[in-house]
Fold Cytochrome C.
Amino acid sequence: MKLLTSAILIATILAAASAQAQDIAAGERSWNKCRACHQIGETAKNGVGPHLNGLFGRHTGEVEGYSYSAANKAANLTWDEAIFAEYIKDPKAKIPGTKMVFAGIKNEKEIADLTAFLKQFGKDGKKL
């Protein structure tokens, strides 16, 4: 009985962890909120916003050929999961003066899923 109880407990913990795991497919659906201004992938170009290939590890204001706001250039941030999560919740709060017009994504799980989706793409736009 004790072994069965332990097995049930472990299964419950694993199911909960799985439910919290990042969901790339859900992140791709969330990406639809971004694609009006940004592109990603091998054919991505700058548009209203810069392309987002290789976003994580890149410095703010660094995409060649994109005209950034002075605030974004001066922010001196390196995009990582934590900075991106803060930014995407409320871009104007994280970088006052940014020209990004977006209400933000408040849901932590949606941010994690979107992050997982974006992290798939290297600097060249190819999936890693």
Q: What stands out?
A: Confidence is low (pLDDT under 50) at residues 14-19. Helices lie at 2-20, 24-31, 70-74, 81-89, 91-94, 108-118. The two ends are 45 Å apart (CA to CA).
